Amino acid sequence: MDPERVTHTGPDGRHLLGPVNAAKTPRWAGVGTFARLPRTDQVEHTDIAVLGIPFDAGVSYRSGASFGPNHVRESSRLLRPFNPAQSASPFAACQVADAGDLIGNPFDIAEAIESIAAGAAELMDGGTKMVSVGGDHTIALPLLRAHHALHGPVALLHFDAHLDTWDTYFGAEYTHGTPFRRAHEEGLIDPESIMHVGTRGPLYGTQDLDDDARFGFGIVSSADVMRRGVDAVVSLLRDKVGNRPLYVSLDIDVLDPAHAPGTGTPEAGGMTSREVLEILRGLRGLNIVGCDVVEVSPAYDHAELTGIAAAHVVYELITVMALGPQAEPGGPAYGISRNLYGSAAED
Ligand SMILES: N=C(N)NCCCC(=O)O
Ligand SMILES: [Zn+2]
Ligand SMILES: [Zn+2]
């Protein structure tokens, strides 16, 4: 049976189908979609799709990120439709829907990459933007290929404990530790506007950093975020990206394992979920053309900590995309002075 949904007339007069009404159907009921939104096949046109990509054959340590998309869906049942940090109702601004899962052959990484790129291209063909939920970080490469085909070389903000610009593992080129080196080699990303955020942890050697810098990446480490603060980091990232088409790739291990234990290659000393969410809010008004949130591995999660963090990350990304590049920067996300719920002092 189809439960009662929140509905809206969108800014352009279109009828928009929202989430299941939580005041009428309890949150735990019904088959899960992201934020209890409709499926793409229940709406006429989807502006922003949440797409699961349950593929984890590219991992170098713990596996299980194939179970990520449905875990994030389950952990998103409590999300509410109004985002006070941005004073925005993303599901009333445009049609957001769950596109289900895109499958990659778990026994053939090269074939999986091809089919993920093709599936993403097909979904975007009708003008839909995507927030993909992985899956391991291997999937960023085919997603970048699909976005490059539409936009040319994109700016990239890569939130991750890891550089993921390594070359090969066991001779394999396509793994979760190598997508951004391949993306650089293929000319998918704009070397003038690519940044890692939240980087930390041991490397194999100094060559890792030399290679990474040669590809054009800047680094804001997790310690930089702690020392310089969220607002300084946001303004640095905004300067770097400008008005270029921007792809955001967020590995949930950018969060400290205390905030996101359910992941495959955890590293101590990470960012808090508050820091990450605030930085994402600070991207308001940038031209985000696509995003992924990857590496949620539920077998290592506890009490849905990681799933909930990922669900909120997806929600903030959807909000910034729904507000679009015409949104005024410096909205409520900008710090304490114009704070949540519009209550704080001017000074
Ligand atoms: N993309 C993620 N999550 N991890 C990459 C780790 C690569 C390594 O094993 O050194
Ligand atoms: Zn990582
Ligand atoms: Zn990664």
From TrEMBL:
Belongs to the arginase family. Agmatinase subfamily. Residues 1-15 have a biased composition (Basic and acidic residues). CDD domains: Agmatinase_PAH. This is Agmatinase. InterPro entries: Agmatinase-rel, Ureohydrolase, Ureohydrolase_dom_sf, Ureohydrolase_Mn_BS. PANTHER family: ARGINASE/AGMATINASE, GUANIDINO ACID HYDROLASE, MITOCHONDRIAL. Mn(2+) binds at H137, D160, H162, D164, D251, D253. Its EC number is 3.5.3.11. Keywords: Hydrolase, Manganese, Metal-binding. It comes from Kocuria subflava. Its cofactor is Mn(2+). Pfam families: Arginase. SUPFAM superfamilies: Arginase/deacetylase (SSF52768). It is an enzyme of class 3 (hydrolase).
